[in-house]
Amino acid sequence: MLVDNPQNKNEKQRQQITQFIGSLKDKTNELDGWARQAEASLTGAGFETYLEFRDLVIECESFNEIIQRRLSSIEKEGEPPDLQDQLNELSARQLTLAIHASLKFLKYISEKNLPLGSRDVFIQELKDLHRMKISLDSERLQGKIDEQALKDQQKVEEILNVVIEKAPKLFSFEHLNNNDKESDDEER
Prior knowledge:
Blueprint: H1 6-40, H2 48-75, H3 82-111, H4 118-137, H5 147-166, H6 174-187
Helix pairs in contact: 1-2, 1-3, 2-3, 3-4, 3-5
């Protein structure tokens, strides 16, 4: 039975991570295209393309996390940080795309009447913005996020306040219970 020596094991892990980063780069390029489509398709009829874009953002974040965990395990063994730098650059690009698209989305809903289904989209957007803020503040991305993305993040927060003022019912959950109860009564 042949036993892999630690050097072979590290090389195999490095090759696998390199492949993962290549795949993540492809996904990030796909994300770029979806961001443009999502921004162009914001209409009062719905936000399907934007929601698909957000799903891809979450997919990229998850893949990012998997790669980060693998990198952490080989960095403990003295691997050079070049793969970490590549991952950080992709993370920064993904975050920049997400912030910019979110800014466009929030500008749109702050200027329009919120269409049916906006409440759920808006609540999900709040969760996503919170995740983006945590990522922006992470040490590994410090200095990698461009100045425009940081300005966009500030604008996102300002627009968010406008939307909250404009649509306070988004945060009223009481009417949901009443509507659910009424629907149940009507079914009987």
